[in-house]
Amino acid sequence: MKKSFLFILFTLTSIFSQAQYKVDFTEKFKKENQGKYKIEINEVKELVHIMIAITKSGIENDDMVEQKGKYYQDVITHFKPYENEQIIKIVDSLLVASIYNYIFLTGNGISYDFKGNKLIKNKIFDFPATTISKNTIKENPITTYKIAIEDFANKSKFREFYNNHKPYYAEIISSYEKNANLGKQWKWLEKNFKTTQNSYAIFCSPLIKSLNYTGDFKNNNFKLIYMVLPPLDKMEKLSERENELFNTRVMFTEIDHNYVKEPTLANQETINQYFKGRKEWTNEDIEGVSAYPNPVKVFDEYMTFGVFVLYCKESYDNKDFLSAKESVISLMKERGFPKMQEFTDKLLKVRSENPGTKIDDIYPEFLKQFQK
After folding, report:
1. Cα 129 to the chain's mean position, in Å?
2. How far apart are CA 96 and CA 5, in angstroms?
3. b/e for 329-365, b at 16 or more Cβ within 10 A?
4. What is the Cα–Cα distance from 182 to 167, expressed in whole angstroms?
5. Residue 248 in contact with residue 178, Cβ under 8 Å?
6. What are the tens digits of pLDDT across the range 241-277?
7. CB 22 within 8 A of CB 224
């Protein structure tokens, strides 16, 4: 399949940090969600993913849309007859105009709910996706195209399709609850970092392929970590434990961005000094590296995966730890980060010399390892 534009893993804290007033965490919401996490295939968000899947851009890009499996075939069979609807052409034009519109569209899906055949505003999430990097939108696109989206949903009988697939959605959610170890990861991260979170939400879609992202919402003294992820993989060639490690890595390296961020920013002057040799730390010939344009971004990506290696060291036996470490080194090299071996070895060394110390507090000693 043609890939019409590059898709990479985004850390979208900036999407939310400039729009905190666009969520409203009521006291009722806080009480119901404190210390808890939820996994959801949100109805309106799934409608947006389906609309994207039948656009010309979606059909041509198997990085943007997961095109394997029975669910995708069900989507194509049911919805492709409606590919010439005006709203589908509009969505396609938005995707052609900018990669970021994929997130502005899907990220704002949670801001509406269905009531019968009509879309009504969600009481908690008003306008959750407004800014990505330097790209800002002034109006929620779901609001802009609300009537056309309602018409498409009604004409295509989307709600009937969604209800018929609820058993499949339930399987995806159950797999996350049984196999992703979110609670275990959360507990480890809050034990080992100074940052704490009030709640987590995972918004999943069977149509998500390579674009995973995470961010946070803060409102009314409550912080919610928001993640957009595909269903868990179960690869036949891997053992049950290897599948667990793979899926844990996918989730963990999204979650821990929210913990690594603060100590990284607190030490950014040193990081800018020691990681300024871009050719040393990145392989510019590999697509996607340009998404990490400065030393802090580069270091943060190394550290995110490095902390996952620490987690494996302290959570699994030596065989599984070594397997996880080697897979991370290999993956990072493929992604354009060639010095993961050196980075990880230094991190493991400093961690072993400072047992029980918060990772925030070992940053200065760890960064000294890179002084020349």
Report:
1. 13
2. 9
3. beebeebbbbbbeebbebbbebbeeeeeeebbebbee
4. 22
5. no
6. 888 888 889 889 988 988 999 999 999 999 999 999 9
7. no
pLDDT tens digits along 132-170: 877 889 999 999 999 999 999 999 999 999 999 999 999
Cβ atoms 54, 79 nearer than 8 A: yes
Task: Give the whole-angstrom CA distance, residue 213 versus residue 13.
Answer: 9
Please identify which residue in the block is written with the tokens 């913990």.
259
Between CA 187 and CA 132 the distance in angstroms is 29
Where are the alpha helices (H) located in 12-107, listed in sequence order? 13-17, 27-33, 43-53, 56-60, 70-79, 86-97, 101-107
How far is 131 from 96, CA to CA, in rounded Å?
18
Rounded distance between C-alpha atoms, residue 47 and residue 57, angstroms: 16
Q: What sign has the CA pseudo-torsion 179, 325, 281, 297?
A: positive
Phi, psi of 208 (to 5 degrees): -75, 135
- Asked if 274 and 208 touch (Cβ cutoff 8 Å), the reply is no
Q: Are 44 and 143 in contact (CB under 8 A)?
A: no
Domain assignments of the chain as residue spans, ordered by start: 1-255, 260-372
Q: What is the Cα–Cα distance from 87 to 101, expressed in whole angstroms?
A: 14
